[in-house]
Amino acid sequence: MTTNAAGSTPDALPSASLPADTRGGTRRSHPLLWVPTGYFTMALAYVMLTSVTAIMFKNLGMDNGKAAEYASYLILAYTIKPLFAPFVEMYRTKKFFVLCAQLAIAMGFGAVALAMSLPGYMAIMVALFVVLSFVGATQDIASDGVYVTALDARSQSLYCGIQSLSWNIGPIVASGGLVYLSGWLHTNTFHHDPKVFGPDWIDSWRIVFWIVAGITLLMALWHLRTMPEGAKAANAPQSIDEAKAILKDSFITFFQKRDVWLMIGFAFLFRLSIGLLEKIGPFFMVDPKVEGGLGLSNELLGIVYGTYGLAAVLLGSLLGGLFVARRGLRPTLFLLCCAVNIPNVTFLLMAIYQPTDLLVISAGVAIEKFFFGFGSVGFMIYLMQQLAPGKYTTTHYAFGTGLMGLCMLVTGSVSGHLQEYLGYVHYFWFVMAATIPSFLVTWFAPFHHAEG
C-alpha cells in the first residue's frame, strides 16, 4: 500500500476488540464487503488528484512547469492530514465521515466536469481540486479509522494484504485505464489530433471526470449498506482544546527522539530523486520527439506507465518485502536505497537515445518501477520500526510519511520548471545527481530499536 493511507488516525485506537456491529459476524459487515472497495475508493481519489491531473493539465496545453507545480500542490492536504485527524475522531462516527467525503468527492468531480464548459475553467478546476484534496484526505483518515477500530488485531493482519492490493488497483484504474480512455475518446470519439495539446482535450477529460464521479457515488451507496460504523477510540479527544493538546504533545515527544534529525533527513530525502521523476516521467513519455520526449499517445502512456509500470511496482514491493523479511532491514537498507535510485538511469538513457520500440520503452519504465517498489519497502519498514515507536506510534509514523509527502510536494512543484530550463537529457542527469543525498542519509540512518 502506498504511504498516503498510513498513519491517519490518532494513537491508541482500540484494535483488540470488535464493536457491536461487527461482533455478530453478519454478512452485512464482513470485511470482504467493504475493505477492498473502501481502499480502492481512497486510492482512486488520491491518484486522480495528485497524478492524473498533471497529465490532464498537460493535455489542455499547460506547460510542464505549471502542470507539475499545480498537481504537486494537491499533495499538501494528504501531507498535513495528521494535523486534523484528531478533529475527525471527535465527531459522529467514522463511517459518517467516509460517506460524507465520498459523496462530496463524487459531487466535486461532477462539478469539475461541468466547470470545463465555463469561461476561465482552469482556475475553477484548480480551486475545486484543492477542496477535493482536503476531502480526500478526510476520507483516508476516516476509512483507516474504520479499518483499525472495526477489526480486531488478527483480522487487521488477515486483511492487510487485501487492503494493500485493493489500494494499488486504484492507480492502475486511474493512471492506466482512465488515462488510456482519455486518449482513446480524444482520437476515436471526438476525432481530434492526439499530438496537439489544447482545449480540444476538454471533451474526453469531461467524460473521465463524470466516470470518476459515478464510481465514487456507487461506492458511497455500497458502503452505506456494508461498512461498519467503526468504534470510537477510548482516548479520543472530547474537545478542540484537548485535540490541540494531544497534537502539541505528539510534536514535543517526536522531537525528543534520539537522533531525530537524522531520521527526519532520512524520511525527507530517501526518495528525493523519485520526487523529481514522478511528474516529469509521464510528461517525457507524451512530449514530442522534437522537444526531447518520446511522443507517445495517452493510450500508450496508460498502458506503459499506468499498467506495466504499476504492475512492476506491485511485483517489486512483494519481492522487496520477502527480501527484507529474510535478510533483515539493517544489513539491506543501503542496498534498498540503491534499488530505488540507480535504476532512474533508464530515463536518462531513453532521453539520450529516444527509442521508438514500445518494448524498449516499456522495459525501461518497468525496470525503474520494479526496483522502486523493491526498495521503497525498506523506507516504510524503517519508519515503522525506527521512527515511529514511542508514545504516539501511529501519529509519529504519519509524521514520517508526511515528511515524504512534503518531499514529493517540493520536488514536484519545481520539477517542471527545472525540466523546461534544462531540457530532458540534462534534467535526468540532475535527477541522477539528486540520488547522492539519498545515499548519504541512508548510510547514516540510525537504528535504535530492535527489528520487528
From TrEMBL:
PROSITE patterns: MFS. Its main location: membrane. InterPro entries: AmpG_permease/AT-1 (IPR004752), MFS (IPR011701), MFS_dom (IPR020846), MFS_trans_sf (IPR036259). One of its GO terms (molecular function) is transmembrane transporter activity. It comes from Pseudoduganella lurida. The lineage of its organism: Bacteria, Pseudomonadati, Pseudomonadota, Betaproteobacteria, Burkholderiales. The chain crosses the membrane at residues 32-55, 67-84, 96-114, 120-137, 158-185, 205-224, 260-280, 300-325, 332-353, 359-384, 396-415, 427-447. GO terms for cellular component: membrane. Keywords: Membrane, Transmembrane, Transmembrane helix, Transport. This is PAT family beta-lactamase induction signal transducer AmpG.
